[in-house]
Amino acid sequence: MYRRILFAVDDDEALPCAVPIVAAYARRWGAEVRVLHVHRIDHDAPNAASRRLVKAVVDRLESEGVPTEAEIRLVERGGKVGPIIARTATQAGADLVAVGSHGRSDLGAMFLGSVSHDAAGGLEAPVLVIRAACDAPVEPRTILVGTDGSAASEEAVIEAADVAASFGSKVVVVHVCQVVTNEAGAIVEPEEDARALVGRAVAAVARRGGSAEADVPVDHSAANGIVTAAERHHADLVVLGSRRPSHLSGLVLGSVAHEATHRLRCPVLLAHRVRSAESVG
Question: How far, in Å, are 20, 61, 217, 257 from residue 239 at the CA level?
Answer without folding.
Answer: 19, 24, 17, 9
